[in-house]
Amino acid sequence: MCFWGGHDFYTLGAWNGTHFAPDDPLLAQTSPADYGGELWASNTFAGADGAVLTMAWVLEGDCDVEAWPPQKACQRVLDRGWYGVLTVIREVTLRSVALPGGGAQRALAYAPVEALETLRFNAERAALAGDGTFQPLKTAGAALDVSLTAAVGTDVAVRVLASPDGEERTVVSLTSAKRIDHAELVYLNNAQRKKATLNATAAASIDACEARCLSDARCLGWTATPVSEGAVACRTLGRLVPLLTKTKSGCDWGKNLGRDPRDSTSGVTGDSWAVLAIDRSASRLSGGYGTHEYAALVPLGGGAATVRVLVDGSVVEAFCAGVAVTARVYPTRDDAVGVAVSATAGATVSVEAHEMRAAF
Fold this sequence. Notes:
Blueprint: E1 2-4, E2 7-10, E3 13-15, E4 20-22, E5 29-32, E6 39-46, E7 52-58, H1 75-80, E8 85-86, E9 90-98, E10 104-112, E11 120-129, E12 135-140, E13 143-151, E14 156-162, E15 170-175, E16 179-181, H2 200-214, E17 221-228, E18 231-237, E19 246-247, E20 265-268, E21 273-279, E22 294-299, E23 304-312, E24 315-320, E25 323-328, E26 338-343, E27 348-356
Antiparallel strand pairs: 1-2, 2-5, 3-4, 5-19, 6-7, 7-8, 7-9, 9-10, 11-27, 12-26, 13-23, 13-27, 14-15, 14-26, 15-21, 16-20, 17-18, 17-20, 21-22, 23-24, 24-25
């Protein structure tokens, strides 16, 4: 594991007792354990049944912790008298992702442990017809377990910690988009805020990079990284290289591999992909640091896809097909406890929502 700047990363491979051989020795990349920006220092342990379990520290998300010592930028955090919380316990398994032209690639999959279900109460279940708008549920609160299930290709979203007028809200969504502009995402660091809009030449180069990948049956994904004014370096990928990745060298962003995500745009091919995102732009009326979006590309199979969202006060954890995205949110309104669901017009989404008891 590689711990750095609000991210934990892993590398898969084989251990023969003396040496570790990564699955992809040429790239030797590491993959995020979670695509949120405040999760750090995972602890892995064995369950009573032998299952591999993990939980991680979730940093405070409403100040720039890189401005250290924190009293320079995070006095409100110090005033709380505590710093950080833990995720729910997650079970870790291996999944296999199909590659174009045959074959598969391994990745870790994360899901909340089954024991969390013993904390549920006040169940609400419904099959809602999507109309593109948010439909309120009876379930409400700041400790929730909500699942949405719909056919692959259906855009779904759940709005949690929402005020009655929707002015304050956090939205978790699964959309069929195939492209992420990484400059729109902030991974803990304010310096990674969205840059100026790309000029027409660079935008056309990004489109050309995507077209190049789509024209190659062996291409699984692509990344376009601006290298100078109007110039874009295009990298097409025949293997499932994480679109947000770090190398083992120095535990830093993969700049030496040309995949520094901060200025890049990436995408995938095929119909069985979606973007899992946590939109925090209206999570608190005061705005400020910690209202940027987190997102991940998710490999889906056929049939149905399920998004599960756990809310515990200031922590929102989203899961889909083994991919996890975690974020901190800080609502300011006492009535920001509502839940609402939306889906593509004409589609049906199955909803299961529960309030959650305290574990202790």
